[in-house]
């Protein structure tokens, strides 16, 4: 088991290193924003995802004096080190530890945001976000609507590391995004790489709506790529085709995209051309980009780590079937986590691994 | 003992030196008093807070229980007997303390559990006696004629508004209502003690606070009817008021959610160095919610200028406070969180005014939270959906309604000061009643908000899925117009 976990880990690493393809749009957008050239682009330092998040938080605090970063253990840099250096630079008044209480963190953040501040709240693990569920679902999400737009808590961004890490078991591995995608009034955003994480996080912090921002913690240190140093944002609710293909459309987000990318490469060896889409924003999501792709390929595969039943893949599947029924040449495939709690020893069995995806690609194309 | 003592000092000294912290900083001792790193080393990525939750605490600390344990005392005695025992202590008494996060903790050889409750209940602060007679030597002189008459007028207005709106619900003109009967003094007097700059985070039985701030009877009626001039655009049930211009956040039904939010808002006032505080209102039932604990604990830790005003009215729908908690009400919880607290007679307007005014001064000047527990009684039903005679005796309701009526009591005091008389009373009541009826009639004539308001304000702008759903719905309405209410403009 240890061996297979290590293999998987290695594959993640292998697939995370040549991420240029993943980051191309961010780098291009950044270069365009500065009028920069390709030469300038290559001068950008390589950062891992954790450092990219850290850089985004530095910029957010630096560019808006009414911005705050807080949560459990964030003051000394956070258990993942994403908030390193912030308290020293911006002071304990703006970057601080909170008591160990998720509903308190989010409730506090809503109040802070409702007074016209940008409140960046950290939930230490997405697995622990549930005590704050009421504050997110009944309070943050409805704050603007219920007041007739007299009040809003749009300055609230909730950051939470999510997903598998190889040894996290039940409570350090979950992908709870689907719960939040059922809540009108919040946005749900998940980045796939360091440069994406920086640009998307800055967009989320500055967006006038409350946002849950899930960070793929497996990629905190594994994903390394060039990240433009300057302040830039990436659009929300816009999916991105990160790999063009003609035979099948594949939709994913976050860390799972690197697994899907591997499957694409292997499928290519078998002569199957895959189009890979990063959804980035799950709520409200960019149906049009996915629809256009499926109209072209006639096939759709969705993959996520969360359990398949009631997962966000179901929503994508249903929406695309509604729009592309006559164009589809095979049933929509969902390669996702199993309908079990996230298991420790059985993690390699639970996960939607490359070969599960590859098999599904083949059976969908050969349907 | 001497060895133990020396060792404790040595530990403190060592930690001061090694951590560079002052002596009051964290000192973590293991069971033998050996020093452990004050800051635990970082675990590997992926194992953070929760690892500590699910496994035994990584660093066993000298718990309070152990401090009081005679067994520990014996153990320590045997430890020092086994070692050299030649030192005579010079400052034995005052040095025998544990320097622990939060301050020095004295040792005791007496095993004594803290009692579950004090022998006597916390007394209730009041200014007016049961007959509206002012008790001497109190600070209520601050309430002059103008203020007193305004307070009394608003208490009566609140009473009449509640009575008429309740009746309107019974007539089927509005779908729901909820009165603040019996709690007029808390509503109006606490509001009078605040300034308009103070931010109010209400629960739902504080319409009097909004009334005090100038929200008109027409505005109340518009909300209850959910018409097109309701600021909430007809989206929420009646009584879910909110007014940006009055610094009064919109009511939401879930209990206690406003409490941690109030702390965040107060922290904002603190950071902006504003001379203002947040007033968070809630009832006795709220104090069982996790958000109550979260909010009070956060407020204490963040030193946020917030006043927590608990209306302990005895009943959470049908649940009596006996079934809600076993503490001496709410006021005693304050100290456990490190919050200055007071219990006040919620049916004594002057006492509520004085206490909240003082609480406000302290909250702003000392930048700290204050807890005010106001003892009162919910004379009305929980709401129009409730019949409280099913779970509580009529004579209990009558007693509070008649003998302990806060409006009558305040009136006696105002009259005693020659600021009020029967003639004014009759005029006021007739006048207000007419105004409330007029407000209802006017609110009824307005049409409902337009259909487009169904889709607006979910986000700051309309996302594509809502665009699509709006046009689909409009097509459906065209096909089946009879399925939809006529008073909503499409």
UniProtKB/TrEMBL annotation, chain A:
Cellular compartment(s): Mitochondrion matrix
GO cellular component entries: mitochondrial matrix
Keywords: Mitochondrion, Oxidoreductase, Transit peptide
Enzyme Commission code(s) on record: 1.2.4.4
Organism superkingdom: Eukaryota
Major location category of this protein: mitochondrion
SMART domains listed in its UniProt record: Transket_pyr
Protein name: 3-methyl-2-oxobutanoate dehydrogenase (2-methylpropanoyl-transferring)
InterPro entries with a match to the protein in the record: THDP-binding (IPR029061), Transketo_C/PFOR_II (IPR009014), Transketolase-like_Pyr-bd (IPR005475), Transketolase_C (IPR033248)
Catalytic activity, reaction form: N(6)-[(R)-lipoyl]-L-lysyl-[protein] + 3-methyl-2-oxobutanoate + H(+) = N(6)-[(R)-S(8)-2-methylpropanoyldihydrolipoyl]-L-lysyl-[protein] + CO2
Residue span, Transketolase-like pyrimidine-binding domain: 47-222
GO annotation terms (biological process): branched-chain amino acid catabolic process
Gene Ontology molecular function: branched-chain 2-oxo acid dehydrogenase activity
Main EC class the enzyme belongs to: oxidoreductase
Subunit record text: Heterotetramer of alpha and beta chains.
TrEMBL record, chain B:
Domain of life: Eukaryota
InterPro entries: Alpha-ketoacid_DH_E1_comp, DH_E1, THDP-binding
Domain Dehydrogenase E1 component: 154-450
Leader sequence residues: none
Gene3D superfamilies in UniProt: 3.40.50.970
A GO BP entry: branched-chain amino acid catabolic process
Subcellular locations according to the entry: Mitochondrion matrix
Keyword Transit peptide: yes
Cofactor(s) needed: thiamine diphosphate
Complex formation: Heterotetramer of alpha and beta chains.
Entry's family note: Belongs to the BCKDHA family.
The protein, known as: 3-methyl-2-oxobutanoate dehydrogenase (2-methylpropanoyl-transferring)
Protein's organism: Eucalyptus globulus (Tasmanian blue gum)
């Amino acid at each position: 088991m240890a061996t297979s976990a290590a293999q998987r880990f290695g594959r993640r690493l292998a697939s995370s290193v040549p991420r240029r393809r993943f980051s191309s749009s961010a780098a291009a957008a950044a270069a365009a924003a500065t009028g920069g050239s390709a030469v300038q682009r290559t001068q950008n330092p390589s950062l891992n995802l954790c450092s990219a998040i850290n850089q985004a938080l530095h910029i957010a605090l630096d560019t808006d004096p009414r911005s705050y970063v807080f949560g459990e253990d964030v003051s000394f840099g956070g258990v993942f080190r994403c908030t390193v250096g912030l308290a020293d630079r911006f002071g304990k008044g703006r970057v601080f530890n909170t008591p160990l209480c998720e509903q308190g963190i989010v409730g506090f953040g809503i109040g802070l945001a409702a007074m016209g501040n940008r409140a960046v709240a950290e939930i230490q693990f997405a697995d622990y976000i549930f005590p704050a569920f009421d504050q997110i679902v009944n309070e943050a999400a409805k704050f603007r609507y219920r007041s007739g737009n007299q009040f809003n808590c749009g300055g609230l961004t909730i950051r939470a590391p999510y997903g598998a890490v190889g040894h996290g078991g039940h409570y350090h591995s979950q992908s709870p995004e689907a719960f939040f995608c059922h809540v009108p009034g919040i946005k749900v955003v998940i980045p796939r790489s360091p440069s994406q994480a920086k640009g998307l996080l800055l967009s989320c912090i500055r967006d006038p709506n409350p946002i849950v921002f899930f960070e793929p913690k497996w990629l905190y240190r594994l994903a390394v790529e060039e990240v433009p140093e300057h302040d830039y944002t990436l659009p929300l609710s816009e999916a991105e085709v990160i790999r063009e293909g003609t035979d099948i459309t594949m939709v994913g987000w976050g860390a799972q995209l690197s697994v899907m990318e591997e499957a694409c490469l292997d499928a290519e060896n078998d002569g199957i051309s895959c189009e890979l889409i990063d959804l980035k924003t799950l709520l409200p999501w960019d149906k049009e980009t996915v629809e256009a792709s499926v109209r072209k390929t006639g096939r759709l595969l969705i993959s996520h780590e969360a359990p398949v039943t009631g997962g966000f893949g179901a929503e994508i599947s249903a929406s695309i079937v509604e729009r592309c029924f006559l164009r589809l040449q095979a049933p929509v495939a969902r390669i996702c986590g199993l309908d079990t709690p996230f298991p420790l020893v059985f993690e390699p069995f639970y996960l939607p691994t490359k070969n599960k995806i590859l098999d599904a690609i083949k059976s969908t194309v050969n349907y | 003992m001497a060895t133990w003592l020396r060792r404790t000092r040595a530990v403190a000294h060592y930690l001061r030196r090694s951590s560079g912290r002052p002596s009051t900083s964290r000192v973590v001792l293991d069971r033998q008093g050996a020093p452990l790193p004050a800051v635990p080393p970082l675990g590997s990525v992926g194992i953070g807070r929760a690892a500590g939750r699910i496994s035994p605490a990584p660093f066993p600390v000298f718990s309070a229980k152990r401090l009081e344990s005679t067994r520990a005392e014996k153990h320590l005695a045997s430890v020092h007997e086994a070692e050299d025992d030649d030192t005579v202590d010079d400052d034995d008494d005052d040095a025998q303390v544990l320097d622990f996060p939060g301050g020095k903790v004295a040792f005791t050889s007496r095993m004594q559990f803290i009692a579950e409750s004090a022998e006597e209940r916390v007394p209730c602060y009041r200014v007016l006696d049961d007959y509206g007679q002012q008790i001497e030597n109190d600070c209520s002189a601050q309430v002059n004629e103008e203020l007193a008459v305004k307070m009394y007028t608003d208490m009566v207005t609140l009473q009449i508004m509640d009575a008429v709106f309740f009746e309107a619900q019974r007539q089927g003109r509005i779908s729901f209502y909820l009165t603040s009967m019996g709690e007029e003094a808390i509503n109006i007097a606490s509001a009078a003690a605040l300034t308009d700059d103070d931010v109010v985070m209400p629960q739902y039985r504080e319409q009097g606070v909004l009334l005090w701030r100038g929200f008109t009877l027409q505005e109340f009626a518009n909300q209850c009817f959910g018409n097109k001039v309701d600021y909430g655009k007809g989206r929420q049930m009646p009584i879910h008021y909110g007014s940006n211009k009055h610094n009064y956040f919109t009511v939401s039904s879930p209990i206690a959610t406003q409490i941690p939010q109030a702390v965040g808002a107060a922290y904002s006032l603190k950071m902006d160095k504003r001379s203002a505080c947040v007033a968070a209102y809630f009832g006795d039932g709220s104090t069982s919610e996790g958000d109550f604990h979260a909010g009070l604990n956060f407020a204490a830790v963040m030193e946020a200028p917030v006043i927590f005003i608990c209306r302990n009215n005895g009943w959470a729908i049908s649940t009596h406070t006996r079934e809600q908690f076993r503490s001496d009400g709410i006021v005693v919880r304050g100290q456990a969180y490190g919050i200055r607290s007071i219990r006040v007679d919620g049916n004594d307007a002057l006492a509520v005014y004085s206490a909240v005014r003082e609480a406000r001064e302290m909250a702003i000047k000392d930048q700290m939270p204050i807890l005010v527990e106001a003892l009162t009684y919910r004379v009305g039903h929980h709401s129009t959906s409730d019949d409280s005679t099913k779970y509580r005796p009529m004579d209990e309701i009558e007693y509070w309604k008649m003998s302990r009526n806060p409006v009558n009591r305040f009136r006696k005091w105002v009259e005693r000061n020659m600021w009020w008389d029967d003639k004014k009373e009759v005029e006021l009541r007739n006048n207000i009643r007419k105004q409330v009826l007029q407000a209802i009639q006017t609110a009824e004539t307005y049409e409902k908000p337009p259909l487009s308001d169904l889709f607006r304000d979910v986000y700051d702008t309309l996302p594509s899925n809502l665009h699509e759903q709006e046009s689909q719905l409009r097509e459906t309405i065209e096909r089946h117009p009879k399925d939809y209410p006529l008073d909503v403009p499409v």
